[in-house]
Design brief:
rod-shaped, mainly alpha
C-alpha cells in the first residue's frame, strides 16, 4: 500500500456516509434516556432509604427501652451505699 492509497482510504473514512446522518442525534438521545433512567433510579433509591430511616427512627422512639440488668459494678456500689443512696 503506497502513500496515495493510504490518503485515499483516510479521506474515504472521513467522508460522511448516508448511514452517518443523524448518528450523533441517535447517540445523544440514547445517552439522555440512559441518564434520565439513572436519575430516576437514584431518586427512587434515595426516597426508599429516607423512608426506611424514618421507619426505624419512629420504631425506636415509640418502643420502650428494654430493661437492662444492672452491671456487677453498679450492684457492688449500690450494696456499699445501701438502697437509699
Amino acid at each position: 500500500m503506497n502513500e496515495h492509497d493510504l490518503d485515499a482510504l483516510l479521506a474515504q473514512a472521513r467522508a460522511p456516509a448516508p448511514a452517518d446522518e443523524g448518528a450523533a442525534e441517535r447517540f445523544l438521545d440514547g445517552h439522555r434516556a440512559r441518564r434520565s433512567r439513572q436519575r430516576r433510579m437514584r431518586a427512587g433509591t434515595l426516597a426508599t432509604l429516607l423512608a426506611a430511616a424514618a421507619a426505624v427512627a419512629g420504631l425506636t422512639v415509640l418502643r420502650p427501652a428494654p430493661e437492662l440488668p444492672p452491671s456487677a459494678a453498679y450492684q457492688a456500689y449500690q450494696s456499699a451505699w445501701g438502697d437509699g443512696w
